[in-house]
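Journal club prep — side note

Before the paper discussion, L.F. wants everyone to see what a predicted structure for a comparable chain looks like in C-alpha cell form. Sequence:
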Amino acid sequence: MLIDKGAIVYHYLRTKFRQWPASRQGVEQWQEERVRSHVRFVRKHSAFYRELWKDYTDAQWRQFPIMDKELMMEHFDPSNTVGITKEEAFAVAYQAENSRDFAPTIGSITVGLSSGTSGNRGIFLVSPQERRAWAGTVLAKMLPHSLLQKESIAFFLRANSNLYGSVGSQRLQFHYYDLLSPVQEHIDRLNEQRPGLIVAPPSMLRILAQARQQGHLQIHPHKIISVAEVLDPLDRKAIETQFAQRVHQVYQCTEGFLACTCSHGTLHLNEDIVIIEKEYLDQKLGRFVPIITDFSRRTQPIVRYRLNDVLTERAEPCPCGSPFLAIESIEGRCDDIFYGYSVHDNRLKPIFPDFISRAIIHASEQVLEYLAIQHTPNRVEIFLRIDEAGSRSVQIEQQITHAMNDLFLKINCQPPVIEFSLYDQGVQAKYDKHGELTDLKKLRRVERRFQLGEETDPFI
C-alpha cells in the first residue's frame, strides 16, 4: 500500500513544534473551535448523527446524547461517513484475523476489530488521511529522538493493521510481532533484530523481562512503551528493574490515541486531537470515566463517546510544563470495580481497583505476580506467584488477608472471604496440548466476575 510519507512528516512536525497558548483557557478555546468545525462536518456526512443532533446547535455539542460501543455498533451503517456496512466490515476484519494477513481494506479504508475485553467486539474504520495523521502524531510524541535518525521498532500486537504499517520507512524499520507466536520465536527474532524501541502489552514485557533475567534475551532497547493493558505497579517495577529504564505508556483504544507519557513519565491526555469530559466517580480522589470527542477522525465519528475505563487525574502539575491534563493512573475498567456490603445498611459500595492492587502489593515484597478476582461481594479469590517458585506461603497469604480486611473496613464494608490459589501460565493464557500459545487474554490484575443488580447504586 502506498503511503504518503510527506504527509506523515507534516503531521510529525506540526505535533512536535506546535506552540500552545500559555493558559488553560487558551487551549480550551482552541479545542472548542475544532470541535464545532468537526460537528458541522459530521452533521453533513452522517445520517445517524444528523438525526441524533437535530434538536441541538453546534455550540450545544456538550449536550449531545452520549454514545458507547453498543450504540455505535447498532447504528454502524448510518453513522460512518464512507458508506461501509457493518456486515462487510466484520467480514474483512475476521478474515484478516483468521488468516493473520492484515493487508486487506475496503477500498482505501482500513478495517480493524477491537479486542472485545468487555464482552462484545467492536469494529473501527480509518481513512488513509487519518492513518497518516495518526502515524505522524505517534512518532512526534513517542520517538526518543529525531525522525531523521534511524530506528528499529518491535511492535507486539494481537492483530496487525494497516494503521500500524503506516509507520514504516527506510529510517524507521517496523517489525510486527504476533502475540500468538511462540515466545521463543520472539526472543530469537529480538536477539537478531536488536530493536531500539519495544512497544508491547505489560504481560509480554514481563515475559521479556524474565527472559532477560535468565540470560536468554540479550537486547538493550533505549525505550520501552507499554500499550493495550493497564500497567500495574508490580509489573512496572519488574520490567524497569530488568531493562534498567523507565517504562513509558500509550493509552490507545479503538476510539482513539488518548494519552501518552512525556519525558518525565507522566501520562498526558492528547488534547491536541481529543477533548475528554470527566464523568466523576469520586471527584475528591480525582477518579473519572472519560467521555471522549476525537475531532481528528471523520470516517467513524467519535463524539461524546463514553469509555468503560477508570482514570485518576494527577493532583500536582507535571514538571514538563505541558498544558495537557496529567493522569496519575489508568486503573482499569468500570466493570472491574470491586464492591463490598456496607457495615451500616448492607448496600453495595465501590472499591476501586487501585486500592485492591496496593493492598496486595504492599502486603509483601515477595509477591511477583497476582490476579484478584471478586466472584461475589463476599468472596474474593487471589492467585499468587511469590518469590519461592511453585510454593505457597501461609504467612504472605495472612498478610494479604489482613491488608484486604483493613481496606474493606476502612471503607466501612464487610470483609469478604479470601481464597488463595497458585498463579501459573494458564491464568492469563491458553495453551494447546503441545504447549503452544493459542490465546493471550488482556492482562487484568483486578477483575470482577459478577454483575450488579439494577437496584444497586454503584457510586454511593
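L.F.'s comment for the group: The domain at 337-448 is CATH 3.30.300 (GMP Synthetase; Chain A, domain 3). Keep this in mind when we get to the figures.
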